[in-house]
Structure formats: structure tokens, C-alpha cells
Amino acid sequence: MLCLGIESTAHTFGIGIVNDKGKVLANQRSMYTTEKGGIHPIKATNHHILLCDELIKNALTEAKLKLSDIDLIAFAQGPGLGQTLRTGAVTARTLSKLLNIPLVGVNHCVAHIEIGKQKTKLEDPVTLYVSGANTQIIAYAGNRYRVFGETLDIGVGKFLDTVGRFMGTGFPGGPAIEKLAEKGKNYIELPYSIKGMDFSFSGVQTKVRQLVESKKHSNKDLAFSTQETVFAMLTEATERAVAHIGKNEVLLTGGVAANKRLTQMLEKMCKARGVKFEVCPRALSGDQGAMIAWQGIIEYSAGKRQKISETKVDGKWRTDQVEVNWIK
Ligand code: AMP
Ligand code: MG
Q: What span, in angstroms and rounded, lies between the C-alpha atoms of 108 and 322?
């Protein structure tokens, strides 16, 4: 079985093609970026609409397939930005009708976890999912991916993008902050905000903005201090989750998983606890269509069927609302 998966929850429009063994045959994506400022939802939507056709063609070329070879269409039904989500949903409905093949809408966050498990061979991890909009500590228990800890305000990726904006970088700011941080040496104290296994970033964000505006410190030192503070928060909360839930694997995934310092901190923590640690391969940790396609195969194989009338997007669809019937 071949599934074509469509990702359009936010900045990225992606088309992936995956077979039922989890082999990724194509993974084409285009990310809406800016020189200055954050994501503009209408501009991101236009970006997706304009590139949709080309990305489908490129994915088929990459996989050496024809559209008629595809057996199943999957798309990210939520969570995300309503407008961008709809571009993927419309594409999925159109392809499904045109080819007369089934379609399944899947949860974007759950797809991140499943592709991560498939590629790292972890079986039952505590997942730290760090992306632009989402930051959650997730583990499987009783037919759901339960959220054991999460951000109380913004996602860590969005936080880093905003801090980048204060410092004058374009979108995405995360990689730019990482580069600046490598040159920083002096730690400037910032608010450290953990509540149980939850955490928040808006207080740190305000403080960093004030410090940038004060011009008392270099952006390098501020970027360094920002990373040290928020990644320590994430590592501490993940450690607490591992200790309480009693699992012995940790998976790091989402766009921010590309960050070397975060990886280093988690690696150290896991080593000290004797827990296995894996990072989802970079090509599959950010937003892309292959994870959506793989999730489509998993859920279709477990019996999921949807009518077009059931494919309305849900911008607020939570990870723990998905009934998991594919894990035995
Ligand atoms: P996603 O929404 O999963 O595609 O992740 C996108 C987010 O990852 C954006 O907020 C980026 O700033 C962030 N990101 C990407 N690369 C890095 C990096 N090397 N360090 C920190 N954040 C990053
Ligand atoms: Mg994501």
C-alpha cells in the first residue's frame, strides 16, 4: 500500500509518500519563511496554495510513481492554523475524489511520535515534542498518548522565533539563536518557569526583550542564556516525567530537536538515569508529509475510515483526544 500524506498545519506545505513498511519514498516540502517578522497566516496560506501542485509532481518524480499508483491519501486534520490546514484538507479531498481512493485525516502531533518511533526503533518512549506551536511531554497509557507536561503558553519554537525577532533575525529564529548562542559565554540570569511538569515561556520572553532593548549585554550572551534556561526547563520536566511514569526510553522530536544544545542536555540526563535516548532523524523531525503518510497507513490499517463530511479541520485537536487503537 502506498500513501500520499499532506502536511499544512502551519509554515510548511509538505507532500510525503510512504509504503506500508514505513519506507519513505518521497518527502517534498516547502517552508514559508520571512526576512523579518513572524508567520503571516494569509501569506503562508498563499504560499501553500501556489506550491501545492509543484510539490505533488516533485514527490511523484522523487518516488518514481504516477498519481494512479497511490492507494490512500492522508492529511493533517489538526492542530494548527485554520487557514493553512484547509489548504491541505482541500487538496486531500480533491485527490481522494479524483482518484477514487480513501482519505484519512490524522493528528499532526501523534504523527510526529509515530514516525519518530518507526525510525528510531524505540517502542514505548516518553516523547519530548518540541516544535513551533507545540511543546509537550507525551507517553502512551491506556489507549491514548497522554500529555504529562506541556507549555502553559507558547511553544518553545515560537518562543525562540520571537526572541530571534527581538534580536533582528527573520523567521525561523531558532537556528539563528543556536548560532548566536555558540558564541556566547556569559550566563545572564533569566526567569526559570516550571510548574510541576508544565512550563511557560512568556515570562522569559518578556525579560529577554527588556534585556535586548537595554543593550547592556551582547545578543550572543543573551542567546546563550536563553538556550541554557529554557532547555534546562525542558530537560528537568522530561526527567521528572521519566521518573514518575517509569518508562526507559526518551524520544526527542519536532523542529527544535535539530538543536545540538538541547540534544546534549537530554543525552546527559538520560545517560545519568540509564534511559535510552534517541532523536528523530532531522529530515523527519520537522513538519513534513512523510509522517502524515505513515500515520495514515497506521490508522487505515487499524480500521479508520472517513467520509468527506468528517474531514473538517480542527485547529485545536489535542494529542490526548486521539483514541489510539493501533498499539497492542
Ligand atoms: P516544526 O513546527 O516542528 O516544523 O518546528 C519549527 C520550529 O523549529 C521553529 O520554531 C524553528 O525556529 C525551530 N527550529 C528549527 N531548527 C532549530 C534549531 N537548530 N534550534 C532551535 N530551534 C530550531
Ligand atoms: Mg510539528
A: 11
Decide: 178 in ligand 1 pocket, CB within 6 A: yes
Task: Report how far ligand 2's centroid is from the alpha carbon of 9 (Å).
Answer: 8
Q: Cα of 217 to ligand 2 centre, how many Å?
A: 32
Between the CA of 131 and the centroid of ligand 1 the distance, in Å, is 6
Question: Which ligand number lies closest to the CA of residue 258?
Answer: 1
Cα(215)–Cα(217) distance, integer angstroms: 6
The three cell numbers locating residue 262: 538541547
Spell out the alpha helix ranges (H) of 183-254.
Answer: 202-214, 219-245
Which ligand has the minimum distance to the alpha carbon of residue 158? 1
Q: What is the model's pTM? A: 0.94
Do 123-282 and 2-112+284-321 have the same topology in CATH?
A: yes
* Å from CA of 23 to ligand 1 middle: 24
User: Is 173 close to ligand 1, i.e. is its CB under 6 Å away?
Assistant: yes
Give the amino acid at 164: G
The per-residue pLDDT string of the chain (328 residues; one tens digit each, 9 = 90 and over) reads: 999 999 999 999 999 999 999 999 999 999 998 777 677 899 999 999 999 999 999 999 999 999 999 999 999 999 999 999 999 999 999 999 999 999 999 999 999 999 999 999 999 999 999 999 899 999 999 999 999 999 999 999 999 999 999 999 877 899 999 999 999 999 999 999 999 899 999 999 999 999 999 999 999 999 999 999 999 999 999 999 999 998 999 999 999 999 999 999 999 999 999 999 999 999 999 999 999 999 999 999 999 999 999 999 999 999 999 999 999 8
CATH topology of domain 123-282: Nucleotidyltransferase; domain 5 (3.30.420)
Q: Which residues contact 50 (CB under 8 A, 6 or more apart)?
A: none
Pick the CATH number of 2-112+284-321 from 3.20.20.70, 3.40.630.30, 3.30.420.40, 3.90.550.10: 3.30.420.40
Instruction: Supply φ then ψ for residue 308, to 5 degrees.
Output: -55, -35
Domain locations along the chain = 2-112+284-321, 123-282
CA atoms within 13 A on the CB side of 130: 28
* Whether residue 16 has its Cβ less than 6 Å from ligand 1: no
